[in-house]
Design goal:
4-stranded parallel sheet, 389 residues, 2 domains, alpha/beta, Rossmann fold
Length: 389
């Protein structure tokens, strides 16, 4: 039984990796030892081949090279190929049964948007067939057609799929386009999957609301331009730059280094808020504009000194400072002293709320900032027992 399993394993390796049979044992004197060559792990080879095949690359079995297929080929009708012109079918005997090793099955992915949904869905589904893609070489060529919003283009793609015998998978938000694709595939006998229609109908039935049915477009509204303007403003105001523009900001963040001011600013700006952040550094006076603007715009950030010390040590290493290089920036005594300095400044401005960012994700801190911001704007603040949040 063990001998049979061993011979089967050797046969599989010989087929897919073209490993020659080991020569018979020889009693001749051994030659000088040769330098050991690097041989990749068989499991690593399997993963690499699976990724390549799933992404549309076809392997040249003789040279073990791969060639990237065009993900969006021109729509040209192919002539009928005779059986003699097709690739030679590779077969291997496995326990008396022939295994078909021919490759070249195609999947056409069609979308009226970016194609992200259909591409990743098909990729996830193909991940369940790695045993076939690798062990039996049943390669799949995927082709993505995105932004298809014309029926004529859609019909050309389906014609080409019929010529190649491809599977058509589509996510078409426009009901008329989806229906046209379904009818054309049925007429030409093409296997097809509507990935968006069934779930859309199920949600519509569950909510008792009809779907919009329009293509997924993102119009350039006033809100869009407002968000872009907010992002540009926030980037220019990062780390205390251009303090003369602090009065234009919706939100101003103040805190010592590495309290997450920049990522929090960028996150808030993507929601349409103009954000500026000002670092609090010992020995460096804060800009006068910070104390002249509306104090209800300003939010202080603080953090646990032990956590800040750990973050700064990691930051110092990333900048190339070894253990032998001492810097006040990452020394515990300096961290405590700087936090105490910031605490005194924040205490001198009682209108500024202080947010504790220790253990909080950016989204959590942003939620606290926005709640306080809108409470102040609407003049309806929640009762609190502490200045810290």
């Amino acid at each position: 039984m063990i001998a049979s399993s061993t011979s089967t394993l050797r046969f599989q390796l010989a087929v897919f990796y073209r490993i020659p049979k080991s020569p018979k044992a020889s009693y001749e004197p051994a030659s000088e030892p040769q330098p050991r060559k690097f041989r990749p792990s068989p499991q690593l080879n399997r993963w690499s081949r699976a990724r390549s095949l799933r992404s549309g690359r076809k392997f040249d079995r003789t040279g073990q090279h791969s060639q990237q297929l065009d993900p969006n080929p021109p729509l040209q009708l192919k002539e009928q190929v005779s059986p003699e012109q097709k690739d030679t079918t590779l077969t291997a005997s496995n326990g008396g049964a022939d295994v078909d090793l021919t490759a070249g099955k195609s999947i056409y992915m069609v979308s009226d948007g970016t194609g992200w949904t259909v591409e990743h869905s098909v990729g996830a589904a193909l991940g369940q067939f790695e045993h076939c893609l690798v062990d039996r070489n049943c390669a799949v060529n995927t082709h993505l057609f995105s932004g298809i919003d014309d029926v004529g283009q859609l019909m050309e793609i389906i014609k080409q799929a019929a010529k190649e015998g491809a599977l058509v998978v589509y996510t078409l938000a426009d009901p008329s386009m989806a229906e046209s694709a379904k009818q054309a595939c049925e007429i030409w006998g093409i296997p097809n999957i509507d990935m968006l229609g069934p779930i859309t109908q199920s949600i519509a039935s569950h909510l008792n609301v009809s779907p919009s049915g329009g293509p997924r477009r993102y119009p350039l509204t006033d809100e869009y331009f407002r968000r872009i303007e907010a992002i540009e403003f926030t980037i220019k105001q990062d780390d205390g730059a251009l303090p003369q523009n602090l009065h234009k900001a919706d939100i101003v963040l103040a805190g010592v280094s590495r309290t997450g001011k920049t990522p929090l600013s960028i996150y808030l700006s993507q929601k349409g808020y103009k954000v500026a952040n000002v670092p609090i550094v010992m020995g460096v006076p804060l800009p006068k504009a910070l104390f002249e603007i509306d104090p209800e715009k300003v939010f202080g950030l603080t953090i646990n000194p032990v956590v800040l010390h750990t973050i700064r040590r990691a930051r110092a290493k990333s900048l190339g400072f070894g253990d032998g290089v001492r810097s006040n920036y990452s020394e515990m005594d300096h961290v405590r002293e700087e936090l105490e300095f910031a605490r005194k400044i924040l205490a001198q401005n009682p209108v500024w709320p202080v947010i504790e960012v220790t253990g909080k994700a950016v989204e959590e801190t942003a939620a606290v900032v926005l709640r306080l911001y809108h409470d102040r704007k609407n003049k309806c603040s929640m009762p609190r027992i502490s200045k810290r949040y």
